[in-house]
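Hello Y.,

Per our agreement to keep a running log of every chain we model this quarter, I'm adding this entry. I've kept the format consistent with earlier entries: sequence first, then predicted structure.
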Amino acid sequence: MEFDYCIVDEACQLSQPSVIGAILLAKRFVLVGDDYQLPPLVQSSEALRLGMDVSLFKRLAGAHPPSVITLSEQYRMNSEIMELSNSLIYDQHLKCGSTLIASGRLKIPRAITGFQGWIERSINPSFPVVFIDTDSFATQENKFCLETYHKQYAAPINMTEVKIIKTLYSSFLK
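Predicted structure for the entry above:
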């Protein structure tokens, strides 16, 4: 089977073999992605040693810079959140795609419960970017999990942060 085009979205997050398999079936291909976001997840130490944690997108973009087209208009975050991304990562290249997106605000229901009311005290829609110090929520369970590495992911598990994320997620769904 052969295709005229293969378009691979989120190509920066995919391993090279998974992308190569798809593009070999096409006459032409387009890789779409953001190299500043998540790289491919590679668990094999041998694959890491061989550089498989670098996406084909990144390799080709580095080898052929003129073939890269950078998009600057975004439609996902308001202007304050975008400014944080611009300052930390994108060197002020991002622009809001519309005034509606730029001025967007989260609407939080009044009756949100969890973590002794910290959501109500910490999250204010007037401030779209909020940093939460989770050290103040330390628990015995969390201290144990931080000291014990989870074998499957080879990374520490912070149960306090897991509970905060679950609380925020369920609150935002409401």
